[in-house]
Specification:
27 strands; single chain; 2 domains; FAD/NAD(P)-binding domain; nine-stranded mixed β-sheet; 14 helices
């Protein structure tokens, strides 16, 4: 849009974040609403989000790329559980193929956004991370696609005596480029997706890798390559084969999740049996791979081609289940009295969750307190006009939901354009509707901040759905002129 030098640039939509969600949102706007002006603001110097930020050894997806990838762009690589460099190429190809490169503004960190009902727009304060300059933009809509965790730091709990350790202590989110673990004893603290990725990746060159966990995690081997996908691609062609594989994998993910939730004891026994077959004879499976909680109370960890189990079998890696008493000069002292010696310690202890990319929101001069809001269709906030956000699934591939949210967002904008509405504000018709935490998920990184997140209601459309087929009906084919939404013109809002 052409503006005078002193004018504030106005855009129809401002997308925050150039990761997998932001690039997807940009593509849907370009194809479904080609007349819409938008920009994608990225605080970092590169696109790709998670897949550019994390540089630790072995970084990969824990979902298959036929469902983690976009519905509109087939995943052509033969490996369906893919490494970060391959995913990054795919994301950047998507941006280039859809003409998004010119829309991405790097080093632009959104600091705050203030909504004015009188003007029916957001005033957005942005900091240039490369120069420190502050600038202001305005937008009809904000689309927060910055993910759910802080990019500048990971979560590291307090460890007594940490300064005593003589070697390096690193968090995977800030992996040093010059860190060489070849021939060294590496201690990885943690048992989540990052830890089970790091251990086999480091075990190939390290003297030995030990995974120290406080509580076991459910771990399942998955095939790195999907043989059925290859057959479907040969029989049906690239596009149709991809669609068929995607449907197959969506059904498979849903079936596994439903089985685990409906028959947790049977699922526990099945997972234990699989683990026993993967581990050496006589291995203490119940000590190291039998969590005290039910399957899918937290996310299951996938290990491609059983690489973690293979490292344990060949003796290059081991698992210890215990609690840390204190760090020592040589490693860590455990509550059991055992000392684990190490040359390098990796704290794979999780993420710091951050909603709305950490930006400060105000509506007509009133600060938005997220715990006082209720999530509408898992993509908007009660009482907050013209704001959407992208949060994917915790029980299957993240991007499955992002695509549906982006489709619904574009349909909502088209409806407003057709009816002349400037403002869209979710408001529960029942102010006394009971609420509960936004995510019904027991993972530690969620539980640490659950009281800082929005809430969800006890009925649609205020429930946070984690079911793809339900969301297809709600977001792809359901009406956008919902009675729980208030549509207004700017002049009417001023009168009100």
């Amino acid at each position: 849009m052409s503006t005078a030098p002193s004018a504030v640039e106005h855009l129809d939509v401002l997308i925050v974040g150039a990761g997998i969600s932001g690039i997807g949102a940009g593509r849907y706007l370009r194809t479904q609403l080609p007349g819409t002006s938008f920009a994608i603001l990225e605080a970092r110097a590169a696109s790709g989000g998670t897949w550019d930020l994390f540089r630790y050894p072995g970084i990969r997806s824990d979902s298959d790329l036929h469902t983690f990838g976009y519905e509109f762009k087939p995943w052509r690589d033969e490996e369906s559980i893919a490494t970060a460099p391959r995913i990054l190429v795919y994301l950047r190809e998507t941006a280039t193929e859809n003409g998004l490169d010119a829309h991405i503004r790097y080093h632009h960190r959104v600091v705050s956004a203030s909504w004015s009902s009188a003007e029916a727009r957001w005033s957005v304060e942005v900091e240039r991370a490369d120069t420190g300059e502050r600038l202001r933009l305005s937008a009809g809509w904000l689309f927060c696609a910055g993910g759910y965790y802080r990019y500048d730091e990971g979560h590291t709990p307090h460890f007594a005596g940490r300064d005593r350790f003589a070697g390096p202590v690193v968090h995977p989110q800030q992996w040093p480029e010059d860190l060489d673990c070849t021939g060294r004893r590496v201690l990885v603290i943690g048992s989540g997706a990052t830890a089970v990725t790091l251990v086999p990746a480091l075990a190939g060159t390290a003297a030995h890798v030990t995974m120290l966990q406080r509580t076991p995690t459910y771990v399942l081997p998955v095939a790195k390559k999907d043989p059925v996908a290859g057959v479907l691609r040969r029989w049906l062609g690239e596009e149709r084969g991809y669609r068929a594989t995607r449907r197959k994998n969506i059904a498979q993910q849903r079936a596994i999740w439903r089985f685990c939730r409906r028959f947790p004891n049977a699922a526990r026994r099945l997972i234990r049996w699989v683990n026993t077959k993967q581990l050496p004879a006589g291995y203490p499976v119940d000590e190291h791979f039998n969590p005290p909680y039910g399957p899918w109370d937290q996310r299951l960890c996938a290990v491609p081609d059983g690489d973690l189990f293979r490292a344990i079998r060949n003796g290059t890696a081991s698992v210890v289940t215990d609690r840390i008493e204190t760090f020592t000069e040589r490693g860590v002292l455990l509550a059991s009295g055992r000392e684990l010696a190490a040359d390098v310690i990796v704290t794979a202890t999780g993420l710091n969750v951050q909603a709305m990319a950490g930006l400060t929101l105000t509506v007509d001069g009133r600060p938005v307190h997220l715990p006082d809001t209720v999530a509408y269709k898992g993509m908007m906030l009660s009482g907050v006009p013209n704001l959407a956000f992208a949060i994917g699934y915790t029980n299957s591939s993240w991007t499955l939901k992002i695509g549906l949210l982006c489709e619904h967002f574009c349909r909502l904008l088209a409806h407003m354009d057709a009816t002349g509405a400037d403002i869209c504000r979710p408001e529960p018709r029942d102010p006394a509707m009971p609420t509960r935490p936004f995510l019904d998920f027991a993972a530690g990184y969620i539980q640490r901040v659950v009281d800082q997140l929005p809430r969800q209601g006890d009925r649609m459309p205020w429930l946070t759905s984690m079911d793809y087929h339900s969301d297809v009906r709600l977001l792809r084919t359901g009406r956008v002129d919902d009675p729980e939404l208030r549509f207004e013109r700017a002049a009417a809002a001023v009168t009100a």
